[in-house]
Amino acid sequence: MDSTHDEMTAVLSVTGIGKTYAEPVLADVALDLFAGEVLALTGENGAGKSTLSKIIGGLTEPTTGAMRLAGEPYAPASRTAAETLGVRMVMQELNLLPTLSVAENLFLNHLPRTGPKALGWIDRRQLREDARVAMAQVGLDAIDPDTLVGELGIGHQQMVEIARNLIGDCRVLILDEPTAMLTAREVDLLFEQIERLKERGVALVYISHRLEELARIADRVAVLRDGRLVFTDRMANVTSERIVTLMVGREIGERIDLGERKIGAPLLKVDKLGRGQVVRDVSFDVREGEIFGVSGLIGAGRTELMRMIYGADLADRGTVSIGRPLAPVDIASPADAVKHGIALITEDRKGEGLLLPQPIAANISLGNLRGVAKRGVVDARRETALAQTQIDALHVRAAGPAQPVGELSGGNQQKVVIGRWLARATTVLLFDEPTRGIDVGAKFDIYGLMGTLAREGRALVVVSSDLRELMLICDRIGVMSAGRMTGIFTRENWTQDALLAAAFAGYSGRDALLHPHDTQHAGSLS
Fold first, then answer.
1. What is the pLDDT of residues 309-364, one digit of tens each?
2. Which sequence spans correspond to the domains of the chain?
3. Which of 47, 222, 276, 318 has its Cβ near the most Cβ atoms within 10 Å?
4. 402 Cβ contact partners less than 8 Å away, ≥ 6 residues apart
């Protein structure tokens, strides 16, 4: 810690903090937060970042240790108690009510009233005006405050959650992977708000695996590994490479080798698929052994396209063809998609991908019931063996197959979702934001898994908001913009500028669409 902090009183101090579930996840953590600074908290998934944050935010009680807020003992019994004392937290798991409007979610506990409060009348006009001010701060100007939160995409929901926590005064603000689903413009708006909060003397904890963001926004960095605090220093004193080494305990190369693959004939063909104006006549194919990326801005239609291919949403035009040789298939539900060999690893792993209270074994067997059942009854021994195989293969940090998935870190939960499909005879795998909220080490594990699946001859479609990630692992990248696929680029001819230009093409005032074949080299993957 530098000399400046030696002369200051910490806004928040944690001493000897530990937490044990089935096994210890935090041990003897001591850390100080100071007014007007951003502390970057980083580490691999399972390192204890979210657990420490939840303890500070009142969601979890520590097993050992103590905390002090502005010099006074601090032991919040709930999130509400922490917020009352000025400690707020924006979590990866959004704390929003989907059946209420954006405005109602923003001011749920402080709804403006008209007339005597006892009558309970809500001043709707004032509520909308207050909401517009709060939404403008995070770039949600174009959204009607009366829109139901459940009608928004997950990226916009994340911005609503951030806006909610920026309302009012606070002493400590914890941001847990706040930019995972945000565009570059939204990130800039968030960082502007962070600077204003620093000027107000707020102490911020910023959790992120995007190291370039940490270098841009953080004053200090603290690294957790295996539940212990292994490093703290001024951000200016360390490099990204040094942080990665501290996080994972080993060096990670800059290049990734997915192994030798044979690119074969198409296994998936999407022809003029569409639904209203959300997805508009999209066409592409994915070949055996190929990793096909889908890029685009939030709201471009990427997730909606994946859901239509999987049958979770029904298309009103176009066809999907599967197999060797390709043949059109009728997909009216996810069950139909699974029957035809299509798997979807959803971006919303907690809401759609997992049964959080259930053990790892039950979550993995959900996609493989025939393989673990005898005469229609699940064989616990087979189920446990299957789960242990996937835990070992994917390096899931867990006490064992019986541990509830809800106790795992976000990255390990994602591995469980992926593991569910590994034992099935799936030929097409749709990955929607597979590494969102996952640390550097776990990302490389998943990239390696994708390489294995591709070498087995499967066709992979990967949706990601991280352009560099797609450029690292994909053979081709299709770019979505305003519901259309505005370009398909091969590794030989893509650049970051060209991909970004295609992402904005559908939003220009003129018809700026690129024909897919204008940017695709025939035979370049053969």
1. 999 999 999 999 999 899 999 999 999 999 999 999 887 766 667 888 888 988 88
2. 1-86+171-178+202-253, 349-424
3. 47
4. 359, 360, 361, 384
